[in-house]
Amino acid sequence: MIRLGGALVAGFVAGPAVDAWITRRLASRGLERPKHWRPATRWILSVILGIGWAVMLTTVGWAGVLAAHLVWAAVAASVVVTDLEHRLIPNRILYPGAAITAVLLLAGALLDGTPERLATAALGAGLCLLGMGALSILGRGALGMGDVKLSAVLGLVCGYWGVGVALRAILSGFVIGGAAALGLMIARRADRHTHLPFAPFLVVGAWWSILGASW
Fold this sequence. Notes:
Layout: H1 2-27, H2 38-60, H3 66-86, H4 91-112, H5 117-138, H6 145-160, H7 163-186, H8 199-212
């Protein structure tokens, strides 16, 4: 309980720094943060980051791969915010975050003596990328390429815990997203033509799936 509380607090403390990094990354693309969203997104980011780090610490514990999972959670929290604000998953956030996560996962797996899990991590990333890519093509743009690339990053870390964990993460994202869309339609806040940001659902599905891997 103490270490979970510590992870939540650490996420809140790191939130402003991650928020500033998001702002710089978006500015490099000529995008500004929407002023009406700023007070809300600062809190949203800190909350998501704190929860993400608590989930990662619960799942991983004090292992060598913990650093990779914490970075992965920070990247995931960042793209959730950008998708909410701009309906965009910027490559300038996703690519460096994915590269750092992959390097740390490799180093951590070697340190923990679990190099065999790197193969399932790569397979999880590949299957998620191919599956989501196929759905994007069949859906004629219903899924953006940002969602496709994000699924590969999520599949990489979830795949470390097993290919089934990676596939369950993506499936959970669709289930959660579908339930949210249905709820909004019932409340008449959306219709079948409404485009909802999908990154939050993918991230929640991935975190739920990886948390289940520790049960």
